[in-house]
Amino acid sequence: MNINHYLKIAEELNVRQKQVSDTIELLDGGATVPFISRYRKEVTGSLDEVQVAAIRDRVQQLRDLDKRREAILKSIKDQEKLTPELEDKINAAETMAALEDLYLPYKPKRRTKATIAREKGLEPLAEKIFEQEPIDLQKEADAFVDEEKEVPDAEAALQGARDIIAEWINENAELRKKMRDLFIEEGKFVSKVIPGKEEEAIKYKDYFDWSEDIKTAPSHRVLAMRRGEKELFLMLDSCPEEVDALALMEGLVVKGNNTCTEQVKLSIKDCYKRLLKPSMETEVRLYTKKKADEEAIKVFTENLRQLLLGAPLGEKSVMAIDPGFRTGCKLVCLGPQGQLLHYDAIFPHEPQRKVAESGALVKHLVEKHQVNAIAIGNGTAGRETEQFIKSLGLPKEVLVVMVNESGASIYSASEVAREEFPDHDLTVRGAVSIGRRLMDPLAELVKIDPKSIGVGQYQHDVDQTALKNSLDDTVMSCVNGVGVEVNTASKQLLTYVSGLGPSLAQNIVNYRNENGPFKSREEIKKVPRLGEKAYEQAAGFLRIQNAENPLDRSAVHPERYELVQKMAKDIQAEVADLIKSQELRGKISLKNYVTDSVGLPTLQDIMEELAKPGRDPRETFEVFSFQEGVNEMKDLKVGMKLPGIITNITNFGAFVDVGVHQDGLVHLSHLADRYVSDPNEVVTVNQKVEVTVVDVDLNRKRIGLSMKSDPFAERGKGKPQGKRKAREKEPEGDLAAKLAMLKGKFNG
Question: What pLDDT, on the 0 to 100 scale, is given for residue 597?
């Protein structure tokens, strides 16, 4: 790889060049991001997952750039038009846009107006005009009149010459760069409703007559306008003022003041309208779409990370209820490992209203299966079912917990669910998913397409490949950060373990089914087709809780077992003693074990693991309860203070479940008493918060909430003036549209 790339990446990420080159070598050797950041700190200089992933992604971009550069050089060389000066420019190009600008004059074209004019022999006339020297233009043009070549008069000759000049201007790399900058820096998005579609396009009402700067337009509005255009409700323009664009072009091209100059000016106008503006608008659209995608994906992945790392209840006996009215509530009992023990249905609500019978069954099952917690889905009839369960007088140690059921129906109809429960219907599978989410959100949510979990922003509009890659990275990071119990993990969970993937994950499950639980990490090597490389990448993230070797229960990598055993031996102790005794661990001087391949970062990680082997980095589970008596939107009153749970975070605020089957929005301006530019600064998914109701619209099912200490104080008080103005620019109805987004009206 080009050594200049190492230097470029190092400068961009503010790390050393050697850190970049060594990390790339590990990546090229098949190492994963979690493995590198956890077990190769000495090699990378302790780069974290984010930095390693950034190096991986950037080096791929640069390699793609080099590949395109080689193709362009070959194409121009084959045309015998490659000069040393052009070759230097192509080799110096740092972006794909710059490369394509240089290649444009040499790129094979379809038959254009300029091509036709050249075929008529008009290029010499175009060259004379473009020089903008004082000449007898009429006389020069008359010389090119030729009936056989379909140039009937001087004006036709001049038109052909102008077509050629317009193409030259369009292919000027310097001009294109400046025009691109003008579009981005000075351009505006202008959105208007297509006449006659006002009623049909009502959800895009904010954008019926809307204009804002391209460079500052937030991602959610860019994606909303593009969707409105795609659905044929909006007309969307994205360009600067035409007078500014023409002035820029004339400043670079015009160099005289005569009849030829007038012809060049006509060519400039034609070039802009026919060639350059459409080209630049396409480029800017792609650029702003990519930028909006990146922002939306960033929001989505951060939400997903927080959701996946939600606090687990742990290995407890759980009753899970998928609530409903007419069809009843589907009920399952799960063992501590999530195994299905019993399934049934109860009908405590209208129209059947079998309250006594349903209550007796619940009590019986709680006692029979020694249930520790009852998980209730937060969908239709969720709050009513919660009230019913709490009215039964169950032992106080039995927890009653509302669980976010987004995506449970997707899981229940999936191939994964059919594999797990081939003899049960969708309703049973859905209830199982709700219960398992309470026990271990990460282990259950990896079975669902992340796009269906309900924490995204315009996830169906963004680049699907980029979204998938980012989500896969996030899931893999979470899975490996927590660690996986190899004897109980599902195939889906094992798939995300560093170095495995679907095929090896299935092989592990098959081996486990045929041979019983793994007794040691060493035994994992016996899994078919799981070679040394895969074992190296995966072993440290796999746990075996009942293993004889206590290190098999930890995140200490097997390659360091010998080192830990030496530490124990040097103080005349066993490894198990080191784990139990802080005093013994205190006797170990880490500097005595530093070698060329093992430095203090790894040694410190080992000591932390010995202190808490296999520790779960997730927070401890806490029970949350909604406000009693507030079950539907009609129960809400402005000014009411309520407990809630953050369910989704976007660039414009956070959605909060307050237990009324409709999430409310805490707008960015209401997240805190201070100015907040990024919601992630103050809230996280699954965070428990107190909110104040500031607006209730029953007809449109929209709830406005606030986390301010005094949400009804004078609007904007204490905020920076410039920020307030920026906020006031936002469409007045945007809040309502965003509220609708969560439930699918705006996110497909």
Answer: 86
Q: Which has the closest alpha carbon to 374: 425, 422, 435, 415? A: 435
The Cα–Cα gap between 15 and 150 comes to 64
Spell out the residues 6+ positions from residue 541 whose beta carbon is closer than 8 angstroms to its own.
Answer: 34, 479, 480, 483, 484, 497, 498, 555
What is the rounded CA–CA span in Å between residue 434 and residue 410? Answer: 12
Task: Name which of 4-18, 210-224, 509-523, 609-623 the model is least confident about.
Answer: 609-623
The yes or no reply on domain 633-742 and CATH 3.40.50.720 is no
What is the distance between the alpha carbons of residues 483 and 480, in angstroms, rounded to a whole number?
Answer: 5
Tokens 């397409």 found at:
449
Amino acid letter, 444: E
Tokens found for residue 518:
């793994």
What SS3 state is found at 588?
coil
DSSP-assigned letters across all residues of 438-457: HH-HHHHHTTS-GGGSS--S
Which CATH number does 113-300 carry?
1.10.3500.10
Distances (CA, A) of 662 to 451, 665, 704: 20, 10, 11
Say if 3-106 and 113-300 have the same CATH topology.
no
The domain locations on the chain are 3-106, 113-300, 318-439, 633-742
User: How many whole angstroms separate alpha carbon 484 and alpha carbon 331?
Assistant: 28
Q: What is the mean pLDDT of residues 203-223?
A: 92
Q: Which of 1-15, 31-45, 268-282, 353-367 has the lowest mean pLDDT?
A: 1-15
CA distance 353 to 349: 4
Q: Find how far residue 565's CA is from the centre of its chain.
A: 42
- What CATH number labels 3-106? 1.10.10.650
Band of residue 451 on the pLDDT scale cut at 50, 70, 90: confident
Q: Is 80 exceeded by the pLDDT of residue 671?
A: yes
Coil vs helix vs strand at 535: helix
Q: Is the pLDDT of residue 576 over 70?
A: yes
The DSSP string of 643-689 is EEEEEEEETTEEEEE-SSSS-EEEEGGGS-SS--S-GGGT--TT-EE
- Token output for 184: 């981005």
Amino acid identity of residue 464, one-letter, is Q
Q: 318-439: CATH homologous superfamily? A: YqgF/RNase H-like domain (3.30.420.140)
Q: How far apart are CA 693 and CA 411, in angstroms?
A: 33
Backbone angles phi, psi at 211, to 5 degrees: -145, 135
Of 545, 540, 498, whose CA–CA distance to 519 is shortest? Answer: 545
Confidence of residue 246 (pLDDT cuts 50, 70, 90): very high
Q: In degrees, to the nearest 5, what angle opens at C-alpha 558 toward C-alphas 555 and 561?
A: 95
Tally of CB atoms within 10 A around 323:
29
What whole-number distance in Å separates Cα of residue 575 and Cα of residue 573? Answer: 7
Residue 719 has pLDDT above 70, yes or no: no
Tokens of 296: 């939306």
**Maximum pairwise Cα distance, the chain:** 106
Closest Cα partner for 225 from 238, 234, 213? 234
